[in-house]
Amino acid sequence: KAGVTQTPRYLIKTRGQQVTLSCSPISGHRSVSWYQQTPGQGLQFLFEYFSETQRNKGNFPGRFSGRQFSNSRSEMNVSTLELGDSALYLCASSLAIYPETQYFGPGTRLLVL
Amino acid sequence: KNEVEQSPQNLTAQEGEFITINCSYSVGISALHWLQQHPGGGIVSLFMLSSGKKKHGRLIATINIQEKHSSLHITASHPRDSAVYICAVITGNQFYFGTGTSLTVIP
User: Fold this and answer.
1) Number of H helices, E strands in chain A
2) A109 in reach of chain B (CB within 8 A)
3) Which among B56, B46, B32 is positioned nearest to B85, based on CA atoms?
4) Out of A55, A98, A102, whose CB is closest to B30?
């Protein structure tokens, strides 16, 4: 069974731009969660989607949004990028919502200049 | 105030040593995860616990709900165990993460 895939793996953007990251979960998994990891803040929870609905949301501004499609694939969007948005963005999938074992993707490394 | 505290922050061990990483949390939880992150960023979920003890190979994870404490033990440590180990707790609809323990196992 293929693992969680994330695209793109690396991305460079400039301040003010927007970015869309994609996550394909393991086949059969219906829950997708997104996390941000920075050296200063560590890992932080962004949001979780299950059956195309956002079920949980972390403490991030409205510039961070996401969605999930009927095939469970998920996208995350960050608008009006700031330098502080430079981070590793990780996606994880699980069969159902918490608490369930999560399987992480390799991440998308975003650099905002 | 951090909801999840890990100790130690950094740990260096000789190959073969028994290693313990601790995680204390201050919130009521529904489950606790131990994650392993290798250089390059890839994260692997090692354990998900809500009570008791779990074992997988040389790894053992325990949790004491009353004391709000969990430990991750590595027996017969090996250089390939070198990684950052992260404790994460699930409470209500939120995930809280520890800052991680960086483990280096020297041959």
Assistant:
1) 0, 11
2) yes
3) B46
4) A98
> Is some CB atom of chain B closer than 8 A to the CB atom of A87?
no
Phi, psi for A103 (deg, rounded to 5): -115, 120
Q: Do A42 and B43 touch (CB under 8 A)?
A: no
Residue A78 · residue A66 · CB < 8 Å: no
Q: Which of B41, B88, B93 sits opposite A88 (nearest CB)?
A: B41
CB A104 within 8 A of CB A90: yes
The pLDDT assigned to B1 comes to 63
Section A35-39 average pLDDT: 93
pLDDT at A11 over 90: yes
CA atoms of B17 and B5, how far apart (whole Å): 23
Residue A98 has pLDDT above 70, yes or no: no
Rg (CA), chain A: 13
Which of A48, A58, A106 is the closest to B42 by Cβ? A106
Distance between CA atoms of A113 and A13, rounded to whole angstroms? 6
